[in-house]
Design goal:
Chains A, B: It comes from Gillisia mitskevichiae. The structure is a homodimer of 244-residue chains. Chain A is of the alpha/beta class. Chain A has helices at 4-12, 16-22, 30-38, 65-71, 107-119, 137-143, 157-163, 201-204, 227-243; strands at 24-28, 43-48, 60-62, 80-85, 98-102, 124-128, 151-155, 168-178, 188-193, 209-212. In chain A, the strands form two sheets. A six-stranded parallel β-sheet of chain A has the order 7-6-5-9-8-10.
Chain lengths: 244, 244
């Protein structure tokens, strides 16, 4: 059974301010829940129509499909909904390549970027305070479990970049150097910008190298690459240069 | 004013069978409409709340915001909705690199892939018959105008690949050769597969080389790359090898 207070808690976690206040976030669907259960994230409570998760019986509530439908945010509710504790990350691990996002707003883009960081072995992702919250359910869903493996930190990004001395700072700009021929040091932070406006002026002034993915077609009015596909190409290119 | 029969036509074009039968598709929003108006696609009719498009007054209908809201499929209707004729493409231009999709189902993925083809100068995109329709409004929206520049053909893809002699056939598979070190001829068709199941067995048997984007992290349960990000990396890598 789901109690009224549990429904209230789950509904409140749709909002970032409540997630931050409670230190909790929601994961839906069998695969997503299994991925997070296997990680070192701590389970708060689990609501499921099928007793298949074999873990923490004291925090597992078997519920009906009608009840699941009531608490689910998915068009088609899937087997279960779990609440996990947002991990507290004190220390920022800066080693090798780090990605930083300056105002990325679309949950799908952030989810894809987290998944790409996971694939390309980027352990730390820095996000400006106006980047969409990574514990937003659409982001969590889009990461396909990668959210448990990439360490994500929200921060005053301009201040952080200004004070950091260990890493080289690069960013993507239309007028930047060709990514295929430009060299980037092993310890670098690469900044990617907002979907509509790119990198903010404040961060532009802190970047030591501007890089660009060249366009190979002649069309003049082609839209510049989406931030998630640009991240895919940059990470691929960085790892290729390092390894092959 | 929008007549009842016009509303009926616009609504019917949400379905692929009607788009195919009528040879028409819908574009919404100022930017999207302008992009298609500037191309060689032919306008059928334009419904707008602001007379800003300066073109084809005989096919332009000034309507109220209430009327636009009635015919729009967007959450927030934007300035106008246009109907264009689907271009008839008789001949398939096979020159240089060609991308082929085997059962890509997600409109956002197809839209991103069309946009990537445009950026990387891939003129021809082949789609299996079970790939999502490129004139689906979500796809059109996601291409950001690139749909007017990339030539897209739906076909019996296994048959086409079997009968084609001009191009080398490659495809992405988990057990494939490392994309960074594998060579692909100038005239190649690269096949990408369905989101859940990859490339079908029928097409697998026709592929001459299997390629793969290696994973750079140690995590064992990382999801394989999404088809759109995989396309981004493949196209980037192909053009890099060719040009740098």
């Amino acid at each position: 059974m789901v109690s009224k207070s549990q429904i209230k808690l789950i509904t409140s976690l749709e909002q970032k301010k409540h997630r931050t206040k409670m230190g909790l976030f929601v994961v839906e669907g069998k695969k997503g829940i299994e991925e997070v259960l296997e990680s070192n994230f701590e389970l708060h409570s689990l609501f499921t129509t099928q007793d298949i998760f074999n873990t923490y019986p004291d925090r597992t509530h078997i519920i009906s499909e009608v009840e699941l439908k009531k608490i689910s945010r998915l068009k088609t509710a899937q087997i279960g909904l779990a609440i996990f504790k947002i991990p507290f990350r004190n220390e920022i691990k800066l080693e090798g390549l780090v990605i930083a996002l300056d105002g990325v707003r679309d949950p799908g883009n952030l989810g894809t970027i987290i998944r790409l960081c996971d694939w390309f072995g980027v352990e730390t992702l820095l996000c400006s305070l106006d980047t969409v919250d990574c514990y937003n359910s659409k982001v969590v869903q889009a990461t396909m479990g990668s959210i448990t493996r990439v360490k994500i930190h929200y921060m005053d990004l301009p201040l952080f970049l200004k004070e950091n001395n260990s890493h080289f700072k690069a960013g993507t700009f239309l007028e930047g150097e060709n990514v295929y021929s430009s060299e980037i040091p092993k310890n670098s932070i690469i900044v990617l910008g907002n979907e509509a406006n790119g990198i903010s002026a404040k961060i532009e002034s802190l970047v030591e190298k501007k890089i660009n993915i060249p366009q190979f077609s002649m069309a003049e009015n082609t839209e510049s690459l989406n931030v998630a596909t640009a991240t895919a190409i940059l990470l691929s290119e960085y790892r290729r240069k390092e390894n092959y």
